[in-house]
Design brief:
Elements lengths: L4 H5 L1 H16 L6 H13 L3 H13 L5 H20 L1 H6 L4 H21 L16 H10 L1 H13 L7 H28 L8 H25 L1
Helix pairs in contact: 3-10, 4-7, 4-10, 4-11, 5-8, 5-9, 5-10, 7-11
């Protein structure tokens, strides 16, 4: 676009042209999208409380019986993303004494979940007593998972996909990360379900379950330190 000498001397005209060029540069550009998706896969798919518990539940109870638990984890993570994007996490943790309380509550929940995994009965001996983790269990896990908040905070603050459109930027990030979370968690569930045959033998079942429970607790400790 060529401006006349009069237009070049007109500050309002120059400002309008600059605004138009800036809008064109930001609408639909999303130059940071590849890096955002790669970081999302790395953070959401790496071993952690949610992914390890999902694999353990899939191995102990079979993939079909854990679908509800998977759905709960995903829905809970959508809630975590919404909370993180709104800034409520920072406000809540700024309250004196809130951080230790949240940490203790999360620790109690994960210890209980690890105990459930470690004591899960062999599949062939499983009757009405062997109940797979539920939707609410997965939902609650996501809400108290320190790794989830740390990962989402890093992704939401470290990448900008749509500048000057904060609400739309947050919405696009939530949509993209939801797809990533579903994909990686399904893979973890299927990976765990492939180990189901080892859970037919009572001795092997106990060894593998305890190993998963220990890994789960270790991942929680690492997640708390990282957060």
């Amino acid at each position: 676009m060529i401006m006349s000498g009069r237009d070049a001397r007109d500050p309002a005209r120059c400002t309008n042209v600059q605004d138009e060029m800036r809008d064109r540069r930001h609408i639909g550009g999303m130059e940071g999208l590849p890096g955002f998706l790669l970081a999302g896969v790395a953070l959401a798919g790496s071993p952690g409380p949610a992914t390890l518990s999902l694999a353990a539940a899939g191995a102990a109870f079979g993939a079909r019986r854990v679908v509800g638990y998977l759905a709960g984890i995903v829905v809970g993570m959508v809630g975590v993303m919404a909370i993180t994007a709104s800034g409520l996490v920072g406000l809540m943790l700024a309250v004196p004494g809130a951080t230790p309380v949240v940490t203790v509550v999360a620790a109690i929940y994960f210890v209980w979940l690890a105990w459930r995994i470690a004591t899960a009965p062999p599949l062939m001996a499983e009757g009405d007593e062997g109940k797979a983790p539920s939707f609410l269990g997965g939902f609650g896990l996501s809400l108290v998972n320190p790794k989830g908040y740390a990962a989402m905070a890093a992704l939401f603050s470290g990448f900008v996909l749509l500048r000057e459109r904060l609400a739309l930027d947050a919405g696009v990030k939530i949509a993209l990360l939801t797809g990533v979370i579903v994909a990686v968690n399904v893979l973890w569930l299927l990976a765990g379900a492939m180990m189901t045959r080892f859970f037919r033998d009572p001795r092997t079942n106990r060894i593998v379950n305890v190993a998963f429970a220990v890994l789960l607790l270790a991942s929680v400790v690492l997640a708390v330190r990282a957060a």
